[in-house]
Specification:
263 residues
Length: 263
């Protein structure tokens, strides 16, 4: 009887917590779309870059490059916890995926890599006499841990989880679930997903360009493709899956072609 009483108490506590969380999310719907993204970006500000690259931790802390795997892992763990917290809010979008989504994702990898390899952004900054910014960390676990294959492969696994499962979800929910609806109407949560105006289309390209300053052209074209998919299917999960497919193929390209500048 004591065990049954304890179990009922724990079950009641868990149900109560879930109901409280659901009520909070229903009252503040922006949490669903912004919280995981904000957590991700805040920890990203701590990520160090290689010593030979300009910049470093965005907030100026002297974090050694060797600590990058720990910072990145912490970022993914904290972001996933944020996703779990807002998970009840994702249920407003019934999960379904059209065959078009993975196809767009496959096309997207050729667009992204092909345009990045033109290095037009570097030429632009040079022409404007501006300091080149926007380089990725380029952390190669096999180069950094040459005698620790377990550590290298373990971090690579974490990197793929972040690239495919986390980034695809939080970026699409932030950009298309919030930003593009917010510019359509102040009561953005009432805007049907997939409904856009000219401002929303511009925001759907301009915002990710700001998020990818080192890949402006690729971001402009690729995220415009995602906007087309969004309007065509009116399904956020199609955008998430297309994003995940492109990111998965990008990760495989980086590993097999040893081109870590794109990660």
């Amino acid at each position: 009887m004591l065990w049954h009483g304890k179990r009922n108490f724990l079950n009641g506590l868990c149900i109560g917590n879930i109901m409280d969380r659901t009520a909070l999310i229903e009252k503040h719907q922006w949490l669903v779309f912004l919280l995981p993204f904000v957590v991700f970006m805040l920890v990203t500000a701590l990520e160090p870059t290689a010593p030979e690259k300009p910049g470093g931790a965005a907030i100026g802390l002297n974090i050694p490059y060797a600590a990058y795997p720990w910072v990145y892992t912490a970022k993914i763990v904290l972001t996933m916890l944020a996703v779990v917290f807002v998970l009840p809010g994702y249920r407003q979008f019934p999960f379904r995926v059209s065959p078009l989504a993975p196809l767009v994702g496959v096309v997207g990898i050729f667009v992204w890599v092909g345009l990045c390899k033109l290095h037009l952004e570097a030429h632009l900054w040079t022409a404007l006499n501006w300091e080149w910014t926007g380089q990725r960390s380029g952390f190669n676990p096999f180069g950094q841990f040459p005698d620790q294959p377990v550590a290298a492969w373990s971090f690579l696994a974490v990197r793929f989880v972040g690239l495919v499962a986390v980034v695809a979800v939080i970026e699409e929910f932030f950009l298309r679930g919030f930003v593009m609806r917010f510019v359509v109407d102040a009561d953005w949560w009432k805007v049907p997903f997939g409904k856009v105006n000219a401002t929303a289309v511009i925001a759907g390209t301009a915002v990710p360009m700001l998020m990818h300053p080192g890949e402006l052209l690729a971001a402009a074209v690729w995220f415009s493709m995602m906007t087309w998919l969004m309007v065509h299917t009116r399904n956020i999960w199609d955008c998430v899956v297309a994003h995940a497919v492109t990111n998965l193929l990008l990760g495989l390209y980086v590993v097999f072609w040893d081109d870590w500048t794109l990660m």
